[in-house]
Sequence to fold (248 residues):
Amino acid sequence: MTYGKDFAAIYDRRWAFWGPKMWAFLHPLVRRRLPHARSWLDLCCGTGSLLRLAKRRGYTVTGVDKSRHQIRHARKNVPGARFVRGDVRRLSLGGKFDVITCMFDSLNYLTVKRDLLTAFRGAHRHLAPRGIFAFDMNTFEGLEDRWNNTTATQDRGLTLIVENTFDAKRALGHCLITGFIRTKAGYRRFQEEHIERGYRAEDIERLLSKAGFVFKKCDGNSLGRVRKRSGRLLYVCRKRAEGRRRDS
Ligand SMILES: C[S@@+](CC[C@H](N)C(=O)[O-])C[C@H]1O[C@@H](n2cnc3c(N)ncnc32)[C@H](O)[C@@H]1O
Fold:
């Protein structure tokens, strides 16, 4: 199991910065391209760091996540928002959304291409006709370059050891997270193994096109121009106009 009780409880201490970073990039873009947008759906929403900001700006927000523990923290972080526990491969929310996001390499957890296509199709089904779908993903090159290290950090009663390895043959990154949380009685230990697939840009783009999207992309870390070995890509997608050929 990933994103269990202990990991979800400490997630925001280390990883909540991503929501505000993405908000600062995405919100001006949404305002420019879709000034009348009202509804915002965040897939794999985690603890709600992006939706908190969207709600504050008046959007009607919905979050979906597979982990009931992440959802529990999201409900606390974003009171009044709608959160649904569910799998991004089986989306069925009823209704359409102006903006759909899926941030912080959440889609890399789908380790077979068929599942990634299913998730893209789900986003397409739930997107309003002129809506925007944005997501970021770790690339094959990103995992190859970065997922070969071990880090250990200690901060306010939490020790976290993160061991990353990458199997280039299978394009799979393994991330073993071991945590020690200080308690009154001593330390409580938890461990989770996360597996992400490193996707090549051409595979992501072929599947997006198959699902009915056209897109623009940038480097997902610098948010600037795509580089030869961009470790993360951020895509901003719209529905392809009906009748347009897939390869046009
Ligand atoms: C790296 S976290 C990102 C969370 C959040 N988007 C953020 O920016 O902080 C990945 C999240 O994806 C969720 N997740 C992974 N696979 C999923 C799936 N198949 N369906 C729904 N949620 C999933 C996890 O539970 C976790 O909360």
